């Protein structure tokens, strides 16, 4: 399989009973939804974080996929490719500060996301904070 024209920065199996589906991501911002039984082409393509995607995480039990960007944002998607929300840098006194994302990882059972940034900071996001725009 060669779903991307660029480097693959992340891939994981999708949650659910179908153990043949996975997602892969490239720095170009393209998410390719793959079915291992049909290796000719992706069954779904989603474009996000144009030219700046750095990481991806898939929750094991909840229908959540997140992508991280060097442009200081995290986007949340459903397994069907629908965007659910975004966390991004806000330049204000009370605004949320987020660095360029370098790593993402979900807690295996809770809706809790850890995000590592290139500024050496680890941030945590829980529940509804992943669904808001």
Topology:
Elements: E1 10-13, E2 21-25, E3 30-35, E4 44-47, E5 53-58, E6 65-69, E7 73-77, E8 83-88, E9 101-106, E10 112-117, E11 122-126
Antiparallel strand pairs: 1-2, 2-3, 3-4, 5-6, 6-7, 7-8, 9-10, 10-11
InterPro entries: Raptor, WD40/YVTN_repeat-like_dom_sf, WD40_repeat_dom_sf, WD40_rpt
Pfam families: WD40
Structural description of this entry:
- This protein is mostly beta strands and 133 residues long.
- The chain has one domain: Methylamine Dehydrogenase, Chain H (7 Propeller), CATH 2.130.10.
- The protein has no helices and eleven strands.
- It has strands at residues 10-13, 21-25, 30-35, 44-47, 53-58, 65-69, 73-77, 83-88, 101-106, 112-117, 122-126.
- The chain has a four-stranded antiparallel β-sheet, with no helix packed on it. Strands 5-6-7-8 form a four-stranded antiparallel β-sheet, with no helix packed on it.
- Strand 7 and strand 8 form a beta hairpin.
How do you describe this structure in short?
The protein has 133 residues and is an all-beta fold. The protein contains no helices and eleven strands. The chain has a single domain, classed as YVTN repeat-like/Quinoprotein amine dehydrogenase (Methylamine Dehydrogenase, Chain H).
Instruction: Give the N-to-C terminal Cα separation.
Output: 34 Å
Q: Helix amount, in percent? A: under 10%
Number of helices: 0
CATH superfamily: YVTN repeat-like/Quinoprotein amine dehydrogenase
Question: What number of structural domains do the residues give?
Answer: 1
Number of strands: 11
The CATH architecture is 7 Propeller
Uncertain runs: none
What's the story with the biggest beta sheet? 4 strands, antiparallel
Identify the strand order in the major beta sheet.
1-2-3-4
Structural class: mainly beta
Reading the helices and strands in chain order gives EEEEEEEEEEE
Text of the CATH class = Mainly Beta
Give the overall shape, derived from the CA principal axes.
globular
- Give the strand content: 35-45%
Mean pLDDT across every amino acid position: 87
Query: Which topology does CATH recognise?
Result: Methylamine Dehydrogenase, Chain H
- From the alpha carbons, calculate the radius of gyration and give it in angstroms: 14 Å
């Amino acid at each position: 399989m060669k779903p991307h024209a660029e480097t693959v920065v992340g891939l994981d199996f999708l949650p659910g009973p179908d153990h043949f589906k996975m997602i892969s991501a490239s720095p170009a911002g393209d998410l390719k939804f793959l079915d291992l039984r049909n290796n000719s082409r992706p069954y779904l393509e989603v474009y996000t974080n144009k030219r700046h995607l750095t990481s991806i995480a898939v929750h094991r039990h909840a229908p959540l996929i997140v992508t991280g960007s060097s442009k200081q944002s995290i986007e949340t998607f459903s397994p069907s490719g629908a965007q659910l929300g975004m966390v991004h840098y806000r330049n204000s006194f009370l605004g949320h500060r987020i660095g360029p994302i370098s790593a993402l990882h979900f807690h295996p059972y809770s809706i809790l996301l850890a995000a590592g940034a290139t500024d050496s900071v680890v941030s945590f996001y829980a529940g509804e904070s992943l669904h808001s725009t």
